[in-house]
Amino acid sequence: MSAAADYSELPGRAQRLIDDLVRHWLITPAVVGARHCPDLSEDGVRKFLSRLVEQDWLARHQLLEHEAYFVLGSRAIHALGIRREARAFGLQSLHEHYAVLLACARRGCSVLTDDEFRAAFPHLIDPGLSTRNLFIDESVTPFRLGLFVVDHDKLSTRLVLKVKRRIGKLMQSRRTELRQAVLNGEISVCVLTATAAKRANIVAAFARKPLRTVTVTVEAHDDLDGFFPLKRR
């Protein structure tokens, strides 16, 4: 039986988990329990994940001292025909993917795939707009396009400049609809950081140099604190 046929025979819960990993790159037992196995105990979630690792659908790596994360295993990569590796991430990529995963878990949303972005926002398709870390911001009606920006323990002032450069690149687009979306407030930014103190610093930095038509929110996720050794303000 081919790997693709094997995949089609997996239980629905396992398929949904693998689909989630295609989208978010990594997942933790806590998120698996909340998103895919709310009926299982922590021990049940661990056993579920262990079986998928043994079958090579998932690969297990170390996140923090006493916590693991999981990525697609070689069998899943082959079955889905995607370009991905089962090895552990470097620190910066791990931080990026983990922060976005935590934000999506908190909001109950997912980042958009390329196909989903094209279907939901066909008027914004442009080579200058990366589809990485995009989500649907449902905090307003009608909803708008959201962009997650991860704080990699940078100075708050540098983070403001990073976001402004990203928005500035959109305003340089030849596509009128994309520039107009920025001007009309149809695009928002959510900055992801580790602590309440750093969140306050970033909020203050954006207050001093606001983006006139782009709403910027800042979220603190305590689980990211281990990625902030320097604790820059």
Largest sheet: 4 strands, mixed
Oligomer: single chain
Gyration radius, rounded: 19 Å
Q: Tell me, what's the shape?
A: globular
Number of alpha- plus pi-helical segments: 10
Give the SSE order as H and E letters: HHHHEEHHHEEHHEHE
Termini separation (Å)?
55 Å
Instruction: Report the sheet-strand fraction.
Output: 15-25%
DSSP E strands, number: 6
The helix/strand class is alpha/beta
Approximate helicity band: 40-55%
Structural domain count: 2
Please, what is the average pLDDT?
93
The low-confidence parts are none
The order of strands across the largest sheet is 3-4-5-6
Written account of the structure:
The protein is of the alpha/beta class and 233 residues long. The chain has two domains: 3-88, Orthogonal Bundle (Arc Repressor Mutant, subunit A); 114-227. The chain has helices at 3-8, 12-24, 29-35, 42-54, 74-80, 91-107, 114-120, 156-171, 176-183, 196-208, and strands at residues 58-64, 67-72, 134-137, 144-150, 187-193, 215-220. It has a four-stranded mixed β-sheet with strand order 3-4-5-6. α8 (156-171) crosses α10 (196-208).
